[in-house]
Design a protein that fits this description.
The chain contains 6 helices and 7 strands. It has helices at 7-23, 56-64, 108-124, 143-155, 171-185, 206-218, and strands spanning 26-32, 44-50, 82-87, 93-97, 128-136, 159-164, 196-197. The chain has a 7-stranded mixed beta sheet with strand order 1-3-4-2-5-6-7, sandwiched between helices. The longest helix has 17 residues, at 7-23. One of its GO terms (cellular component) is cytosol.
């Protein structure tokens, strides 16, 4: 009779499996500007959402170890489509880099179009297993972040908060941001209770996020 794995053993398996998943070559599938162009829903789909310039593309590059996979820019609003990525040899996983929301300096019509695409996707994708909502650790949850979280709660779409740019603030300020974020999501229906703290530049939390994505593909 075999004994159940301990939580430490399970964590080690998830970390190694996540590492191997993201060690595969990843490729850009295509950019999508309307819901009709999305591939047929199937397998596990996860998405990265967040305000413009929060670091979505940088985080995807860090996860995959491919610096040029997702385009990065210091100009907010650069990502204007749903950008789809897939690991080589894994047909049941699709990663979606979403357009940033909340950027007011673009033309209003363009901002409205991006926001409609974002919200339509989040509400209407049946195989979307989890949305990783990126929050800049220097600023915490802002009003437009709260609007997105409320929409996800209403749609019963599971989401998890990922604090980005943790290397850009001091330890005490980071602790305060974590505590404030935990308090704000505690009563939210669809929020995953654990926050992932990351730094794309320093590599902090990248292994944890890889493991989390891998776990979703096995459930």
């Amino acid at each position: 009779m075999t004994t159940p794995e301990t939580s430490e053993e399970q964590e080690a398996v998830a970390l190694e499996s996540g590492r191997l998943l993201f060690a595969r070559p990843w490729s850009f599938v295509r950019g999508i500007s309307d819901m009709e162009s999305l591939p047929v829903a199937g397998g596990t789909e996860i998405a990265f959402a967040g305000r413009s310039n929060v670091g979505k593309s940088s985080l995807i590059n860090a996860l995959t170890g491919q610096g040029g996979l997702a385009r990065t820019s210091n100009t907010p609003g650069r990502t204007q489509e749903l950008n789809l990525f897939r690991p080589e040899g894994v047909d049941n996983l699709l990663v979606v880099d979403m357009p940033g929301y909340g950027y007011a300096k673009a033309p209003k019509a363009q901002v409205d179009a991006w926001n409609r695409l974002v919200f339509s996707y989040l509400r209407g994708r049946p195989n979307l297993r989890r949305v990783y909502v990126l929050i800049d650790a220097r600023h915490g949850i802002k009003e437009n972040d709260g609007e997105v979280l409320s929409m996800l709660d209403k749609a019963a779409v599971s989401y998890q908060i990922v604090l980005t740019k943790a290397d850009k603030i001091g330890a005490k300020d980071l602790e305060a941001c974590i505590a404030d974020t935990e308090a704000k999501i505690r009563k939210r229906a669809a929020a995953f209770p654990t926050i992932v703290v990351t730094s794309s530049e320093k590599g902090r939390g990248i292994d944890v996020l890889r493991a989390a994505v891998w776990t979703l593909t096995t459930e």
